[in-house]
């Protein structure tokens, strides 16, 4: 692990990014992507996440170009003082997935991110999602698509983005929302490992929606590289801007095909030679959710996998060129390898 705070790498680098919540899946993927692109990375983590003696946290990975900063995100003055010189801040902080946690924690995390970015005079980058558009969302989602959020998380996402927009009006910071679909890859904690492929070693796949419905999926290493490219072109954006990342447009059947290829190489296929496919028992989960807030929150979002939709990335590609794009089968195999469930995919270079 690279020590911090002395010396401050931002003082000697023309390109420095502060990542808030760098121990999470997106945060860690972004830290790696920015570092690989030659940026100096200041990676904020909770003090308890620091692997030093007596903290009780897990060891942090040693990544060239990444300086770990065990500072509480709400200590904005101390955090900004240690991150002086950073031109970009990535808001990769997330509360637990329950509605209660989102209501009580998400606004405070946004305020902390705004405060730090304002003190640095930097650009704040926020990963967005499609919750803003609600259950009646159209098939194609553009940056100017009317937002008709439904449910606690959807309405909160709209409010958070409105708050960020308002914070840019006095010229003290700039901001961009990079909206994407469901995350997969770069570790555990998503729909892939918790539902879809949870029983893949037993030859089973569980789909969250109808097999023919196509929805957007963001392979995190690709999305992280996109954050880098947008950061490098931020001078061409408005003070507050929104961009859409298309990612992979995949149906349940495409997931089954990609997972079957991995299962075949791992020896996980049933004797019949095909994966057993089932759908998520949403009514049962909804019932259990009366006692388990996490399940209640997940079931409230089931419309996301039953409603065909895609993100139009025309404005994004006009800014950065083609999206970084790992072929779907390769991305799925690597995502399972990241979970420790399968052998890694052969090395391939994402599209430039």
UniProtKB/TrEMBL annotation:
Annotated GO MF terms: aldehyde dehydrogenase (NAD+) activity
GO cellular component: cytoplasm
Pfam family of the protein (one): Epimerase
Alphabetized Gene3D superfamilies for the sequence: NAD(P)-binding Rossmann-like Domain
Domain NAD-dependent epimerase/dehydratase as annotated: residue spans: 17-234
Name of the protein: Epimerase
């Amino acid at each position: 692990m690279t020590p911090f705070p002395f010396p401050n790498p931002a003082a000697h680098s023309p390109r420095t990014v502060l990542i808030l919540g760098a121990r999470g899946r997106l945060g860690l993927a972004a830290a790696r992507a920015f570092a690989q692109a030659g940026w100096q990375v200041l990676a904020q983590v909770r003090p308890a996440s620091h692997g030093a003696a007596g903290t009780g946290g897990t060891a942090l990975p040693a990544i060239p170009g990444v300086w770990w900063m065990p500072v509480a995100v709400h200590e904005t003055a101390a955090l900004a003082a240690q991150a002086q010189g950073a031109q970009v801040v990535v808001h990769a902080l997330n509360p637990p997935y329950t509605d209660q946690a989102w209501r009580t924690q998400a606004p405070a995390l946004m305020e902390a991110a705004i405060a730090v970015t304002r003190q640095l005079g930097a650009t704040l980058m926020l990963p967005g999602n499609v919750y803003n558009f609600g259950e009646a969302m159209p098939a194609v989602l553009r940056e100017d698509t009317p937002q008709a959020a439904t449910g606690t998380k959807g309405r909160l996402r709209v409010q958070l983005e409105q708050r960020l927009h308002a914070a840019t009006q006095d010229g003290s910071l700039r901001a961009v929302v990079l909206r994407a679909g469901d995350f997969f890859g770069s570790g555990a904690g998503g729909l892939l490992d918790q539902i879809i492929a949870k029983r893949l070693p037993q030859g089973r796949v569980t789909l969250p929606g109808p097999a023919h419905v196509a929805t957007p999926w963001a392979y995190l290493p690709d999305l992280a590289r996109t954050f880098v490219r947008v950061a490098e072109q931020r001078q061409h954006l408005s003070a507050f801007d929104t961009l859409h990342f298309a990612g992979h447009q995949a149906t349940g059947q495409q997931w089954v095909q990609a997972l079957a290829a991995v299962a075949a190489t791992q020896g996980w296929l049933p004797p019949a030679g095909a994966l057993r496919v089932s759908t998520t028992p949403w009514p049962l989960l909804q019932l259990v959710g009366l006692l388990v807030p996490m399940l209640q929150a997940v079931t409230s979002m089931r419309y996301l996998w039953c409603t065909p939709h895609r993100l139009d990335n025309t404005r994004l590609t006009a800014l950065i060129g083609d999206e970084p794009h790992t072929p779907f089968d390769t991305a799925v195999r690597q995502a399972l390898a990241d979970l420790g469930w399968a052998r890694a995919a052969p090395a391939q270079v994402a599209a430039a």
